[in-house]
Specification:
By secondary structure, the chain is α+β, with helices and mostly antiparallel strands. The protein has one domain: Roll (Transcriptional Co-activator pc4, Chain A). It has 2 helices and 8 strands.
């Protein structure tokens, strides 16, 4: 399933692929970001329980306008995407994404942007409804 968050200068797409029969980390999370004209697409190794917590924390930010929701790789490059409420209706989004290829070349995108709280509603509730069973 694909989850999209869109604002005028920012978009984020998350596609989790869960492998429940394996041990931790057990989920490959495809991440695509477009932020002020820069973009990246990569895959993060995460645990589905951490993804469920991320969805829960993101919903908390939407409802209260405060707090932080962060999903981060526990190993490797420690890529992450983080949301932080400012208490006034704007949500700061920061992240670090990295991707290597078969020839050893690497690309990195560090991004920071803001979205309005209203952009978060469908995104966070969809994530929470589909992954809360892993909390």
């Amino acid at each position: 399933m694909e989850y999209q968050l869109n604002d005028k200068n920012f978009s984020l797409t998350l596609v989790p692929n869960i492998f429940e029969e394996t041990c931790y980390p057990n989920t490959l999370l495809d991440v695509t970001v477009q932020s002020d004209g820069f973009s990246a697409n990569t895959t993060m190794d995460i645990d589905i329980k951490e993804f469920a917590k991320f969805a829960f924390d993101l919903t908390h930010i939407y409802e209260t306008l405060s707090g932080e929701a962060r999903i981060e790789e526990p190993y490797g490059q420690h890529m992450y995407v983080s949301f932080m409420g400012n208490g006034r209706g704007h949500i700061a989004i920061k992240g670090y994404l990295n991707k290597g290829n078969h020839t050893g070349n690497e690309q990195t995108l560090e991004f920071q942007n803001d979205i309005d709280q209203t952009c978060l509603k469908n995104f966070c509730y969809s994530l929470l409804s589909n992954y809360k069973r892993y909390l």
